[in-house]
Specification:
Length: 134
């Protein structure tokens, strides 16, 4: 009887070790999602993706600053050239929208806008500010 108990204890120990290792990896791996939304969950709200050296992004930034858009429209800005997590998030957004992966890109929670002119027009409409003439 003692031999059967020992032979049963070995597989239980192995299973327990595998479960503990899997939970540990899940908890400590970078980028693991713990909100149930998955690693590729789309962001909520308005997100402006930009590149820190992108000239069209600088046009949007200048408009946002000149018209105090941050005071009128709630949105977050995410730099994608140097931040891999932001770039991966933007990639998931562009796949959802079925658009290319250029910046500036605006996600409004449901759809995408690309290019400085469309994004500035979006902010102008949301904030009630003038659209610059071309």
């Amino acid at each position: 009887m003692e031999i059967k108990e020992q032979s049963l204890m070995i597989p239980i120990g192995i299973v327990l070790a595998v479960v503990v290792a899997a939970v540990g990896l899940y908890m400590f791996l970078p980028g693991a999602s713990r909100d149930g939304g998955g690693a590729n969950a789309l962001p909520q709200g308005i997100v402006l993706y930009y590149g820190d050296t992108c000239p069209h992004c600088k046009n949007v930034d200048a408009y946002v600053a000149a018209h105090a858009i941050h005071d009128k429209v709630e949105f977050v800005e995410k730099e994608v050239y140097r931040d891999r997590a932001n770039a991966a998030e933007m990639s998931a957004v562009t796949k959802q929208c079925d658009v290319g992966s250029g910046v500036p890109l605006l996600w409004d929670g449901q759809s995408c806008m690309m290019g400085d002119k469309d994004i500035i027009a979006f902010f102008a409409q949301k904030a009630g500010t003038p659209v610059p003439e071309e």
